[in-house]
Amino acid sequence: MTEFYFVRHGETQLNLRQCFNGGLSDSPLTAKGVAGAQAVGQALAGVHFVQAISSSLPRAVTTTQLILAAHLEPVPVATANGLREMKLGRWDGQTMATVDEPALLDLYFHDLPGFDAKAADQVGAETYRGVLTRSLAVINSATAAHPTGKLLVVAHGIVFQLLLNTLMGVPFTQLRQPAKLHNTTITRLKTLNGRDFERLSWDEAPEKLK
Asked: Which keywords, in A-to-Z order, does the entry hold (predicted)?
């Protein structure tokens, strides 16, 4: 059995300013973001991870390092471009208030196939389908490499919204309806075969696992 511990990165300066924090933008963790990552580290200090996999974006790498700092034994760490946040083109790094494109925003939030077909090229963004395909490939490879053991995976809000809901059987058209995970929460899924996943916990604050 493979058990995954999925953790969204710590709060960043762009998160605090309520900006589009996509794959073409990055900013340092806030003090709250650092504290949140350290709290996850303390909560998971006793978990024996056979592997940690982080998005290659700096905010995720920093979060991973802060989490693993609490472990007495070293944990192998790999970075994966497939876990990077969705590239949002000209919206990346902008506040919602500055993006005056209501029709495109409506597709972005409410119509994944429509966004992929009609809006992604206009915005210069990735498609939802492309983000899901690349992130699933990371999890499939990790499961194949580690058919037993516990893995830490650190990535981003939209990536996890697409990826984890898909693993739980949510249809593609509804993947944005369940809320995004909060920063520095822990979601645990397990699988026996790499295809069927069981939810053990979802979007839990680290203090609940102590």
From this structure: Hydrolase
